[in-house]
Amino acid sequence: MSLRLAILIMSALGVISDSILIAFYPQFFAERYGITSAVHVGAYIAAISIAVMCALPLWARLTRRIETLHLLWITQGIAGTLAVASAWAPTIEVYWLFTMAMFVTKASYLLLFPYLMRLEKPEDHGLVIGLLSVVIHIGGIFGASVGGLVLESLGPKMCMWLVGAGDFSQMAMSLFLIFSGSMVPVLKRNETGEVKPIAKRSATAWAALLKLSALMLLFDLSAYLVRPFFSVYWERLTDSSQAITGLVFAIPGVIALIALAINKSNIKDTFKNLDHTLGNLLVGAVGLVLQASSAPELIILGRCLFGWSLFQVIVKMEVTLFRISQPERYDRDFAVTNFFQNLGVLLSSFAAGYIVSWVGIPLTFALAAGGFLITAFIDRLTFNVDSHHQTTEELSHAH
Predict the structure, then answer these.
(1) What is residue 384's predicted lDDT score, i.e. its pLDDT?
(2) Which parts of the chain register pLDDT below 70?
(3) How many CB atoms lie within 10 A of CB 221?
(4) Which pLDDT does position 299 carry in this prediction?
(5) pLDDT at position 6, please?
(6) Which of 29, 198, 331, 354 could bridge to 60 as Cys pair (CB 3.0-4.6 Å)?
């Protein structure tokens, strides 16, 4: 098994573990603890974002001294243990305690992404990012589908066991790669075995990174506004089972597969704007508006357009990140952008809970569409991340 394939599988395991309940927290809390508050669901998802955004920079700092896979087998083992323990949490307070600690340790698996990028040639970054995005979407499809089926048929406790199983599987694969000799060390050391220090970053490079991070924050704030209560919305309109709801929730993953195939084919040359962030954000805005409809067919069409937009914009932003960064800074720069992305998810989670409790679910789609339009406007006027050949200095001064 190649190291790239192993890391993609480990990333998939992490996404599947994360996706098992992400679409079903309203139903999970209602069934397990009798809590039906929309605000509570929004607050819980926001707390997950806080845990990840605070923990990841700490794990990234540790990878200055410890190889990524050496760190992961420990953290994922702890995360799996906490997941299993939370299955028996007698109260909602204990559940919060166990699962927040779980997400703090689980967050370290996100560093697999910059670790893989350090092993790849710069010209292959776009392909690898696209592959990883598809893996994430497939993991989302599988996780959401299994989560809905298991929650409906076997109950919430089994869902947490499955979450733990994903973490333990990552731990096992990390150990396998280490002891089989497949792991590639990336830390540069001097003759005495100490890790070499990294030169300070220029102000221009910081400006480029922070501008891109702010754009990612706004994009994620908009994209994730519709996530917490989509499953509830769909079930109210269609009276579908939770398994079917999980499949509808995961439609963007199928679209990601199609988008990756198109991006790597000659079809893309016929449609020059397929790689255009402005166009893709407008497509996403239309998809979000369609999801506010009460017609299931339009909602499904909207999920397709939304999924296309998510894939194309995320890949472009990630390619830009690794273009303006340096290999020895990949972990830390990724942690910076991830902090802003999770801040966007955090704000959207809080906002979604209150918006739904005040005016209902459909308005979240309209507001998210507005956020996509604002993102497109700022991208055009300030960031302009579409150019394949922009340098760090150009990105930091783009207008």
Answers:
(1) 57
(2) 1, 188-199, 201, 264-275, 382-399
(3) 24
(4) 94
(5) 92
(6) 331
What count of other Cβ atoms lies within 10 Å of the Cβ of residue 271?
11
Residue 94 corresponds to which tokens in the numbers above?
Answer: 């204990």
How far is it, in rounded angstroms, from Cα 39 to Cα 126?
38
- Quick one: tokens of 41? 């669901």
Query: Residue 352 and residue 336: Cα distance in Å, rounded?
Result: 24
**Angle value at C-alpha 223, between 128 and 33, nearest 5 degrees:** 105
- From residue 210, how far is each of 250, 336, 364 by CA, in Å? 31, 8, 27
Picking from 265, 286, 263, the residue whose alpha carbon sits closest to that of residue 275 is: 263
With beta carbons less than 8 A apart as the criterion, state whether 349 and 42 touch: yes
Residues 6+ apart with CB under 8 A from 269: none
Rounded to 5 degrees, what are φ and ψ at 271?
A: -120, 90
What radius of gyration, in Å, describes the C-alpha atoms of the chain?
21
Residue with tokens 């760190």: 71
Q: What is the pLDDT, as a whole number, of residue 271?
A: 44
Please state, in angstroms and rounded to a whole number, the distance separating the CA atoms of residues 375 and 382. 10
pLDDT tens column, 300-332: 999 999 999 998 898 888 888 888 888 888 888
The Cα 295–Cα 298 span in angstroms is 5
Following DSSP, what letter does each residue of 244-280 receive, concatenated? HHHHHHTHHHHHHHHHHHHHTSTHHHH-GGGG-HHHH
Task: Match 């050391």 to its residue by tokens.
Answer: 189
- Give the number of C-alpha atoms closer than 13 A to the C-alpha of residue 1, restricted to the C-beta side: 16
For residue 192, give the amino acid letter.
Answer: T
The position carrying tokens 């991006």 is: 263
The whole-model pTM stands at 0.76
> In a 3-state reduction of DSSP, which class is residue 189?
strand
Report the pLDDT value the prediction gives residue 1, as an integer from 0 to 100.
64
Is the distance from CB of 238 to CB of 298 less than 8 angstroms?
A: no
Beta bridge partners of 195: 189
Q: What is the DSSP string of 18-68?
A: HHHHHT-HHHHHHHHH----HHHHHHHHHHHHHHHHHHHHHHHHHTTTS-H
Longest dimension (CA), the chain: 67
Two tokens at 265?
A: 């084919």
Sequence-ordered list of residues with C-beta below 8 angstroms from that of 313, at least 6 positions apart, any chain? 219, 277, 280, 281, 284
